[in-house]
Structure formats: C-alpha cells, structure tokens
Amino acid sequence: MRPASYLLIAIAHLQIISFSTAADTQPVTSRVPGETAKKSDTQPVTSRVPGETAKKWCKVYQKSCPIQVGKSDGNQAYPGEFPHMAAIGYGEESGIKWHCGGALISEKFVLSAAHCSNSPSVGPPKWVLLGAVFLINTTATDGSKGQIHPIMRIIRHPEYKAPANYNDIVLFEIGPAITPNPRPLNSKELHPACLSENRTLPGKQALATGWGRVEYFGDTSPNLLIKHLQILELSVCEEAFKHITKKTLSMGFVPSMLCAGVLPGKRDTCQGDGGAPLHSFLMNECTYEVWGVTSFGSVCGDPKKPSVYTKVFAYISWIEDIVWPA
Ligand SMILES: *[C@@H]1O[C@H](CO)[C@@H](O)[C@H](O)[C@H]1NC(C)=O
Ligand SMILES: *[C@@H]1O[C@H](CO)[C@@H](O)[C@H](O)[C@H]1NC(C)=O
Fold first, then answer.
1. 169-221 confidence digits (pLDDT tens)
2. Which SUPFAM superfamilies match (predicted)?
3. Percentages helix, strand, coil for the chain, rounded to the nearest 5?
4. Which atom of ligand 2 is nearest to the CA of 50?
5. In ligand 2, which atom is closest to the CA atom of 34?
6. 103-160 pLDDT per residue, tens
7. Spatial separation of the C-alpha atoms in residues 326 and 320, rounded to whole Å
8. So what's the architecture of 52-66+83-191+317-323 in CATH?
9. Whose CA is nearest to atom 1 of ligand 2?
10. Residue nearest atom 7 in ligand 1 by C-alpha distance
C-alpha cells in the first residue's frame, strides 16, 4: 500500500507552467532550433545541435525491444505493442476520466497536446496511465490494466494561446506510480519512444494510436486503436480547413504542423485522440519514432478531411532543454 499522504504531495507539487505566467517565459525554453546564444542573454543557453540529445537517448531506450512492436496489421493494439502509449487522466483518483493521449519520451516525461493541459469541465489533468490497452473501468486500484502515475508538473509550450491551434504541445512530468507492482519505465513492456529526426515526411506512412471516438459523436473506444495514415502536404489541409475560423488559425497552416489522413476518408483520428502520438516504427532499431502530436481535425473520417498534428521536430530543442537539460 502506498502512504495515504502521497496523493496530497502529488497535488501540492502540481505546477502548471504556461505562457500566462510572466516569470516562466525564460529565453531558454523559447529558443527556436539552431538559434545561437546572444551576448546579452543572461540565461545559460546551450549550443546543442537540435535533435542530437534526443538521438543519444533513443539509443539508450531502444535496448529493451518490446515484445510485439511493429507486428500489428490490424486496427487493435496488442498489449505491449506500443510501450510508450499513455492515456491522460482528469478528475479525482476514485473516478479518473481518460480524455487525451500522449507518448512517454523519457522515464519522467510524457509528450502530449497543449489543448489537453486544461479541461473546461474538470480542470488540468492529474494522471498518466501507462501500459494499458483497455480503458474500461481502469481506476487507481486496478494495477492489472496498467499503471497510474501522478502528473507533477505541466509544461505547456510558452506560445500556445487557446483557442488558437498553434504550438499545441505540452510536457507532463510524472511521479512514481501509485498503483501496485509498477514496472520500471525502461522495461520491455514500458519504455520511451524516440523523438523525430529532421525528416521530410509528406508521402510517408504513419500510425496514429488512441482511444478516441470511433466515429464523429460516436462512442469512445475501450481498445487502443491503430490508424494507418499517410502524411500529406500541408496544402491538402489548407484546402480541407479553408472555412475554419480566423480565431483558431489566423496565420493559416505553418511548417510546425503536419497534415495526415487517408483520402478518401474513413481512417482518421477523432475526439478523444488529442495529444496521442503520430508515429512510425523504426524497423532496425526496434522502437517507434514520434513524428506528431494529435492536435485538431474536423468531422472525423470525412472524405478529404485529414487531421492536423503538431510536428515534433519543430519543437525538438524546446523538448530537449526540458527533458534532458544540459
Ligand atoms: C464497469 O464498472 C461498472 C460499475 O462498477 C460495472 O457495472 C461494469 O460491469 C464494469 N464494466 C466492465 C467492462 O468491467
Ligand atoms: C533539417 O533538414 C533540412 C533539409 O535537409 C535543412 O535544410 C535544415 O537546416 C535542417 N534543420 C535542422 C534544425 O537541422
């Protein structure tokens, strides 16, 4: 049994770092990839090559090859197949609601979407579920279906300003599991995914995984579903979303977004898939590489209506500075 005080400690430490807090906007987290340190900077700024640190850690994490990764040709994930897949939970421990997805990218951090960092009805997320495939009735006392970690710190991208859809990326720092018999986060069943390298993605095949709705306004799925998608040119999304409001997409589509789907429709991510990874299996390296974070879409699975993902490589330095500080 965990000590009763643990939950209180976890909540007390829950800290949300976001744009709205002036003190948090430090140059070190708002740097753009490749930008070099200016003489006037008072903050220590690293001169790391974007993506190099993530690549180094990728080599460390891939040593434990998951049991069945890359084998699924169907639409339902096997247990252990996506050892980095996370569900993001809201509400109290006795009745957690899983409304978003995420990806474990180190032994302490889960990558997700900034729009998942606050729910209008239940506030900020408090829990991360790892190692689960079925979500029905998963509670903090049911360790057999996965393990639950408290979220200790929410680090939203400093330039995410809801309701605008830009910079829709967040990091959740997690604490030790509160469920019995947790597995280490570098084991066969549970381990971090690699982050995207600087790749040209349009035309490539990718997988999106999530517990989102199976159809628009339909039921959410209790099983972790796999969607086989193609990365499309941004112009395809531009055309598909040309009627979207100025408030959410005032600058149009930008290179830090990815457009993915299947034309003509049917396969898509949907409500409840927010924050979940868009990834690809690296055959020789026995791991997944996360290319995108599920951000927004329109009517799921509609012909010519792909969805939009936050492009992970566009934020690689921001992620590296938080997850693996120099
Ligand atoms: C989920 O919990 C409810 C209430 O405890 C129960 O009635 C239901 O059968 C459970 N469903 C599953 C699939 O275990
Ligand atoms: C990414 O790759 C492109 C094309 O090879 C290159 O022009 C660009 O400088 C690279 N960016 C980074 C941050 O390495």
1. 999 999 999 988 899 998 888 889 999 999 999 999 999 998 865 443 445 56
2. Trypsin-like serine proteases
3. 15, 25, 55
4. 13
5. 13
6. 999 999 999 999 999 988 889 999 999 998 877 655 555 555 689 999 999 999 999 9
7. 9
8. Beta Barrel (2.40)
9. 198
10. 137
**Helices (H) then strands (E): counts for the chain:** 5, 14
Of 162, 207, 208, 7, whose CA–CA distance to 91 is shortest? 7
Is the alpha carbon torsion for 90, 8, 178, 191 positive or negative? positive
First-residue to last-residue Cα distance in the chain: 36
Side chain identity at residue 52, one-letter code: E
Report how far ligand 2's centroid is from the alpha carbon of 167 (Å): 19
CATH number of 194-314: 2.40.10.10
Judge if the upstream peptide bond of residue 50 is cis by omega within 30 degrees of 0: no
Q: Quickly list DSSP for 237-273.
A: HHHHTTTS-TTT-TT---TTEEEEE-TTSS----TT-
Structure tokens at 286: 């026995």
| Distance of alpha carbon 97 from alpha carbon 135, whole angstroms | 10
Residues of the chain with CATH 2.40.10.10: 52-66+83-191+317-323, 194-314
Record the pTM: 0.82
